Amino acid sequence: MKIFIFLFIFVLKFPAAQAAGESKTEFTIFDLSYPRATGLQSNVVGFDAHSLQTWNWSSSLELNFEFDADFQNVTEPKDRARFDFSETQFRWKIRGWKIQVGMIRPQWTSTDGLNPMNLLNAIDATDLLRTKDLGQLGASVFWAGSPITLEWIVVPWARLSRLPGASSSWWPQGSELLILSENQSEFRVPQNINYQIFDAEAVGKAQSWNSAAQVKAQTASFDFAVAYHDGVDPTPNIQTNLQANLVQVSPVVFELASPVQLTPIFYRRQAQAFSVQWTGDSSSLKASHRRAQSVRSQVYSVLGIEQHFGSGLSTWVLVLEKAFSQSGISPTDSLAILNQASFFERAWFFGIRKSITESSLLGVDAVYDSEQKNQIYRAQITHRWSENLSTNLLSTWLEGPKTSITGIATNKDRIDLLMTAVF
Length: 423
Hints:
Elements: H1 2-13, E1 19-33, E2 43-56, E3 61-72, E4 81-84, E5 89-94, E6 97-104, E7 122-124, E8 132-134, E9 136-144, E10 148-157, E11 186-188, E12 195-197, E13 201-202, E14 208-218, E15 222-232, E16 237-248, E17 253-266, E18 268-279, E19 283-293, E20 297-309, E21 316-326, H2 340-343, E22 346-355, E23 360-369, E24 375-386, E25 389-399, H3 405-408, E26 414-422
Parallel strand pairs: 11-17, 12-17, 13-17
Antiparallel strand pairs: 1-2, 1-26, 2-3, 3-4, 3-5, 5-6, 6-9, 7-8, 9-10, 10-14, 14-15, 15-18, 16-17, 18-19, 19-20, 20-21, 21-22, 22-23, 23-24, 24-25, 25-26
């Protein structure tokens, strides 16, 4: 907490070398309620803080200081306080070139629901319904021409993704879901089982000298981008050490015994991706594809359409996407919940956006996995009280058969109330 207070005093008081640039500090207070929680924490409160400060030394040199902090009263000690320096970096600009040194977090986007172009960023997955991209400490070179832009990034030592802690409610509890299926045996999870998570391991030189690049061509109605990544896979393999008791002979059924020991193993991968988008007067068509190779081959494709109806406050925005993926992870593996690509091997994404008033926005999303019947539904209302104050009410439901990931996670249904103030 002392470090957090010091950093915010620093960014608020530190004088600009030549001229002040952008300055913004954003606080969000949130309350998360779990209506169907059983044997779990039914309410979580906390706050997020985000500070962005920019100082200009000259017309070509600036310091961008960006800091995130997240505090919440969850049961897992490691997840109660999280800090990240987001995109804190020095920037040097000259003509069409921009060189950045510091925390690099590229926003390579393609489709709205699932994004195959997100290659370099590590992931904060301590809350699987509120994941965040984490930047990497390195350097980037960006060049903008017309209509071509180029970006190349190098990371001497890559950071690893964050996973839920041992006491997190995201690990399976009291489920009928299979843990392992290679030997055709069922491993069931009893209620109140304990997990032990060892330090993450990076095999070989997975973290050493990562690199990524993107080339993008953009016109008034057409975007095309190709990208590559050579470095650590943000999604780990979970190595398990299980102890189990035989509870049924035919078919063979085991019940896991505490503790379930888990070790995240990160491997190096080589990934190539491309995206294409056509934009018309009231609609756009999108497609994105990624192929990656590490210890397993991964193929991940998304097709999408976005359509606008009406104008002004009567405007409706509809989004429909279809995902195709082959992750190399068994969909009956409980630990596949950490991998979005395996979570929805054959998924549909549907979204609606509608302005209720000039200050209020309604959003409804649904994700349906036709392979394993995983389902996620979300409704959101955002109201802006003033230029600097807004409220967000978000409700999330998870549904599915008892043998699906979302089927055993229905106690993760939740209602989020967030109040955000900007200074």
